[in-house]
Design a protein that fits this description.
Chain lengths: 390, 534
Amino acid sequence: MDGASGTSGGPSRRRFLEAAAAAGIIGVAGCNTPGSDGTATETSTATPAAESSEQIGSGRSPFGDRTVSGVSMSEMPDLSGELTLYSGRGEALVGELISYIEDLYPDLTVRPLYNNAAELVSQLETEGQNSPGDVFYSVNAGALGALENRGRTQSLPQDVLEFVPQNFRADSGAWIGTSGRARSVPYNTDVLSASDVPADIMSFPDESAFEDGFGWAPTYSSFQAFITAMRLLEGESATREWLTGMQELGASQYGDEFQVARAVADGEISAGLTNHYYIQRVLARRGLSAPVRTAFTQNDAGAIFNVAGACVLDTAADTTLAANFVRHLLSAEAQDYFARTTFEYPLVPAVEPIGRLPTIDELNPPEEIDLSQLSDLEATIDILRETGVL
Amino acid sequence: MATEHQRTADGDTDDDASPPLGVSIAAAAVAAGVLLPVLWLFRTGLSVGLTESLALLTRPTTLQVFVNSAVLVVLSTAACVLIGVPLAYLTVRTDIPFRRFWTVMVSLPLVIPSYVGAFAFVSAFGPQGGFQRLLAPLGVAKIPEIYGLQGSVLILTLYTYPYVYITARASLKSMDTTLIDAARTLEHDRWETFRRVTLPQIRPAVAAGALLSGLYVLADFGTPSIMRYDVFTRVIFVEFGSFGRDTAILLSLQLVAVTVFILWLEARVRGEERTTAGGRSRATVSLGRWRYLAMGFAALIAGLALVVPVAILLSWVGTGSASVNQSLAFQWSYVSNSVLVAAAAAAVAVVAGLPVAYLSARYDGILPATFERISYVGYAVPGVVLGLALVYFGSQYATPIYQTLYLLVFAYVIRFLPQSVGSLRASFLSVDPSLPEAARTLGQTSAGAFRHVTLPLVAPGLFGGAALVFLTTMKELPATLLLRPSGFTTLVTHIWTAYESGYFGQAAIPALVLLFVSGLSMLVILRQEGYDVK
């Protein structure tokens, strides 16, 4: 666990910090170069230790630095007025970005309410038409789809939707993905090699290398979305068999997927199922010497690619302001911010991911799955319960 | 002089058979305030439909989950009594060294959110945890499993025994020690005296505290989830997580039903209650050489509950990532925000609890008992469910106070009212009714008799109740997240923000501040009650 890296992992952490500092110096030089499409992003002369808000748009990262392209916020319509943002994404992850946008415009006041995404959906559902909410910002497509199904969204303007490829937004235009997360398999490099991890998720229950050394987090929304995908792709009985098989393999339950990733790095388990960025977070903290790396399955439920995203609520007081706020989440600065601080995949094609990761194009998510289908959790929960996983 | 009134089913507690109208109206208003938001739960839960409801209730896992919850509640509550009562006795009736220090220390675990405690224990004592690593060179390959029932009981006991401790303590403080002297003159030994004199007198208070602990355990989500133990609340949260709000609410009505059963059971077990003269505590029991053992016991409990999470959090302070987010920078306003809402909630909960507790302690009959039992309903549902009920209430009928501190404090009061009612009621029971009666014969009005005679006598219970509400509000999270005004950050929402994003190191500072501020506030509260330790 991370506690351990404070005691036994001391030297490796120091090495990592040194590497990050060195990379920071390169970063300052890199930032003075305009983006490849000619739109200059912000330049930063901040020292590596400076507050990270000064780094927004700077391209600096714990894994080395780069230049940032895309449409800058300065080219976007000004924001003014008051905006109530229901954010299912944590303040620690996006608070800085939101304050940054708020500080850009003197006439803009953002009232963020942070909570877990599913609870915010319940809150919006309970508030009904009396909701003060303007924009909902979610950790996954499921919560956005749930709001759309309840008729609580408004269509985004076409020029906002066009920022991201079609598969990362609702066909109806009700919501748009702002950053991406791939399902992945963290494995401990002391125990397994990349080739030991099957490329087919459905064969995991037969993999003796995982016996009594596999971790998952069944209460976590991304895991449930993954099982939903499996149900849609392979059918209910195959999904049941898979779940039963994994239980027979002795899969242990964790409270969330960050715990799974850390447990893999600790050697508590040899592999598990997590979103890709949890592995990058462990690496960013413990250094690249931590014995955990990422494997991806191919063209199956284990390879689905989900998005965090935003929608304009039906109760929005100023629809234009709300839509333009969502537009700012697709700016070059914001996209780089996601890649850099949360290790997610930027969805605007001009911005590359950061970390030990393949590019979006190198991933092979199943083509038959539409993200909005993943909000259909009811049957999934039933199966998880019947098999005793939940 | 010690008098003793037996309270029987016929009821001869008070010569005035019917309770005063004003107090009854006040108690009824408080009960209505608790019930209104809860009624929405019934409406929403029952909208799910009969077929689905039946399917949910008859699921094969339902029985297992029910048994798991019951086992967890029974074991944890028993453990809370076994820890809370001896600690209360030691810190009130004996010459344990540094009495006030220990009083504060053993109360403090109440402010540690149980999920933080659970997480810390898993990190320390889990497989591959810090403790295991420490022992590995000594050849210890495996330490007892922390996950599952045993871990859940351990954590929930460590963080809920203060309910028993604080209520038992208040009761011991207002107990008449002349009875003990009398028993000792009758050649009872110390244990015999405790069993035959002290225990019956503090029984209502211990029952009230145990009830608070048990219901807390029943409605807690964080601990069983981290400890991987399958209980009611986990099922409810799974449903919330999959956007099944109505089903989740239906399931929490099951919790309400279980709570009603527990309340009924507790009322039966509570049985005959005695009212006795109070306020004459002077003698302390000299422990002799045993005082160090007593101190060791207090230190062990407080140490486990406080030091483990603090140490684990501190060990993470240095491990934050290089680019720690500025949103996680600690601000002193979090402290004032926390103290402000907790103090307001404590004050309102005590004022609202007074009529309810007074009526139910002094008068028999359906209504006083009903009002008292109703005050527990808000406590029985998980915080997120009650929070949603108030989201509905606030956004539909009270828009001006929605997402303001007024509604937030109202939510705290509804959630934690039983803590003040339980503590107050136990104290009212320990006041000899003949004392205010004597004041009336001396020309006092009934209000005057209450103010000058009864109120000073129940002061320990009043401040005990205030302390409970204060400390629990300091750590309340789910309702706070749903109802706080935008930008209103308390110590606990800040801890949650850091914890949820995996910045555990950043959770350490606010957690330490939470402990420190709560400890300081406890000292202030203890001073108010007229703490009599030299």
